[in-house]
Each structure stands twice: as C-alpha cells, then as structure tokens.
Amino acid sequence: MAVFLDLTEEMIKCFNDCSRTGNYQRFMTNNRKFLSDLSGNLRKVEFKNDHLCDIISSQSKCCFDYILKWNPQKPEIIFGTYNLDKYIPDFVIDLKYALKIKNWNDFYWKYRSVADFMISEALKQKIIEFGIEYKGNIFDSFELRDLVVENDAMPVGPPVTNIWQDTKNSHVMVDDEATKKQYNAEMEKRAQNVVNIKIFGVKSSEPSENVRKRAAHITTVVDSSQNVTELTTGGIYSKSEQDESRLVRELPTEPKEPTKLRRSERKEEYRDFAANIEMENMESIIEKILRKKMIGYCKTEKLECLEKKFEAGISSLKIYVDRKLNSLKTDQEERNELKSESESNQEKMMDLQEQFENELGKNYSRISLLIGNQIEKLNKKIEEMKEDSLKQEKEIKTIMLEVEILKMEMSSDSEDDEESVVQEAKLKIRELFDSFHQELDLRINTNHEPDQSSASFDGEIEKEFSAVREEVEQLMSDISYRSEESNPGNIDESTESKSPSNPVDEDDEEMSRKCERELDEQNRVQGQKLQAARQRRAEMNKKAADDRKKATKLARGNKKGA
C-alpha cells in the first residue's frame, strides 16, 4: 500500500528561513518523521535507466546529512557520504554551492524535473503518493504547482465591460416570445462548442488518501474560431454534484394522478431549469475564459514590449559591433601601414648596411694599400740605411787604413812631427764621429713610420755605434802606444832622474780625456735620442694596432648585422 506524504507550506517556509541563516537544524528536527519516511520509502523505488535518481533514492538520508552537517568554511567529506562524492560528483558540487551561497533557486530549477520524475515513478510503483501544498490545494508535481504560482503572480486586467452582445430593437425587446426564441437559439449554438475537461483539485483539510480519488467533469465554452483544448489547473472544484442536488431539490413534485398536460408542463419546467443552470455555469466559465484572454493580452503586450526592447538592444548592439568593426579596420590599416613602413625602413637599413660594408671594404683596402706602401717605403729606407752603413763601414775601414799609414809614418817621422800627426788623427776621428752622428740623426728623423723591423734596426745601429767606438778607442790606444815607443828614452830619463813630466805627454793625455768626455757626451745624447725614437715607434705601433682592432670589430659587427 502506498504511503501518503505531503510537503506543506509550513515546511517550505521553514526551509526557506533556515536557508537564509545557513542552519538547517530546526527544519530537520521539526520534520524528522517526514524525512525518515521519505528516505526509507525512496529506497524501495526502482530507477533502472536513471543513474542519478537511483543514487539519490538509495542515498537520500546522506543528502539530508550533507545539508545538516556540511560547513562551507571547513569543506570536508561528511562521514557516510562517500558514495555521493564518488558516483554523482556534479550533484554534490551543486548542493555544496547552494549551501555556500544560501540560495537554492539555481538548484531547484536544475533538478525540478528530476524530482517530478521520482514522484511519478514512486506513484506508478504504488510506493509513495507525494503531494505539494499551495494555498489549500495539493499538487502531484512541482511543475503543476509552479504553473499555478505563476498564474497567481500575473497581474489581473481591468474588468471586462466590452462583452459582445446582440443588439436588439424596440420591437424585439417588447416581444417576450421573440427573446425566448433567440435565447434558445443561442443556447443551442453554444451547446455545440461545449467540451468536457477533467480538472483535479483537493483541499488540504480533508484526508489526502480520500481526496486524490475525487475527480469532476466540468464544461467550458470556447469560441468557434478557436480549437478545443484541454486545460489542467489546481484548486478549481466542479459543481456537478451541487447542481444535481439543486436540480433534485427544485424539481416540482409529481402529482398523484399525472396527466398528459402535467407531464408536458413538467418537461418544459425541467428544460427551463436545466437551461438556467447551464446558462449560469457557462457565464461563469465564459468570464474565466475572458479573464484568461485578458491575461493573455497582457502577456502579449509584455511580449511586444520585450520584443521592442530586444529589437532596440539588437540595433544598439549592431551599432556597437559596427563601430568596433570600423575601429578594428582602422587599426588593421594602421598596422598594415606601420608594417609597410617598417619593411621599407628595413630595406633602407639593408641598403645602408650594404653601402657601409662596401665603404668599409674600400677603406680597408685603402688602408691595407697605404700600410703596404708604407712598409715598402720603410723596407726601402732600411735597405738604403744598410747601404749607407756599408758605405760608412768602407769609409771607416779606409780611415783605419789611413790611420795605420799615419801610424807608420809617425813611427818613421821625428819627434817634431809627432804632435802634428796626433792632432791630424784626432781631427779625422772627430770628422768620422760627426759624419756618423749626422747620418744617424737623419735616419732617426726620417724614419717616423712604424715598422715591425724597428727592433732589428735599433740593434744594427747600436752594433755600428759600438763598433765605431771600439775602433776609435783602439786608434787612441795605438796612438798613445806609438807615442810611448817613439820616446822611450825620455820616459826612462824622467823616471830615473825623477824630473817633471813631459808637457807634450800631458797635453796628449788631456786631449785624449777631452775626446773621451766628448765621446761619452755624444754617446749619451745619441742614446737619449735613440730612446725617444724607440718610444715614438712603440707609440705609433700601438696606435696602428688599435686602429686595426677597431677596423676588424666594425667589420665583424657589420657581418653579424647582415
């Protein structure tokens, strides 16, 4: 036998109050028996082809525990609700979201059809007869209850005063028989458009198991231009039983001895009474239909307003989209222009880079040619200096030969001529040194360009200078030695007799010392000049190396940029 469970308005109000606070303890305690009966009987209902309904029916108690125990601030899995999280995670997510925001509207509209399907299946299997109460009426589904709620929420139109009626002239209004005939004709026409519609309506004050078995048939009139439709609403009760009882009460009593005239009168009275009852019923139904038509007109007007707003929104949206498209087109054109400009600039950069590379190559070739020419000039100068040094060596050798000859002559000449010979030799030596230093100055002053062979050149100059110096010293020593050999008796006499030294020898010694000092001074000056020339060559070599490095770096950077 089916279990009758009704969801009353008090339960719904209590649940809404608890949802605002987020604490559902009062709802669970006040409706513990209802919830336990619902969860216990839902397990008996079978849902073979619906996984969600099957899990909810078998785990309905876990759903109620979730509502009572789950805390949004500490989102942990509730004990015993593992199957819900495992098999229907989407349903659990929606349930948690509704509990978190304290608003069940989205959850209700999403799962209303699921609840109606479960109610209908439980009713088919005769396990649960579930009802939803609204304004004293009980409905078999949430959808039917929501339809009635929407109809009650719609604004009621103005009273219907423009009801169509047939116009009558004065003659017809006076003639009662004509009015009766016209009335009967209208009733016959309206009777053709009468249909039976089954409307279920129950009162919550009566027991639900008895109320659900009641159904009444009422008649409604529809215009001939419209199609016949079936209307299902709640909270409307038929008056068929009342009309039948009224008809039985108001029928005239049968005479003890009926006659044909009495029967005909009674038939006419019965017909008039039935017509009056039908007329009253039809007028009430027509008023309801006209009211619904007015509601429909209001709805159509609202729909027209919404359509106008929608069209205005679409037009404004089109304008906005057109503006956006135009702005996008202009942006795209600007981007294309910038792209073309960047491409042209890139081409110009490539051309400039090529020109720079060409100029750099030309400059590099020019610099290499200049360096090669300078190196050739330096090599030529070095060769000329070598030739000059060879010539000077030859001259020195000739001078040495002359000195030897002079020595030989000095040995053969007398003592009177010795002093003159020494002076001539010193003069020649000075001339030799002067010519050598002049040539060296010319070489240093003319050789300003850097060369890799500067070290070897300096070494050769030092070698030549040292060789000339050694030869001169050798010449001086030979001269002094010859002079001593030429006057051995004088020296012995001076030593034996311890007489004062010979003034000629003293003059020779002074001259030799003076020559040595002059030679040392000249060597020092030439050494300073040689050191300055070396520093100048080193600076010039360093500068040339830096210029070469810069040129190579520029060439590498241009290659990488290309």
From TrEMBL:
Biased composition (Basic and acidic residues): 511-523, 536-549
Ranges annotated as biased composition (Basic residues): 550-562
Record keywords, A-Z: Coiled coil
Coiled-coil ranges from the UniProt annotation: 321-402
Signal peptide: none
Location of region: Disordered: 241-266, 476-562
Keyword Coiled coil assigned: yes
Protein name, entry field: FBA_2 domain-containing protein
Native species: Caenorhabditis tropicalis
Lineage, broadest ranks: Eukaryota, Metazoa, Ecdysozoa, Nematoda, Chromadorea
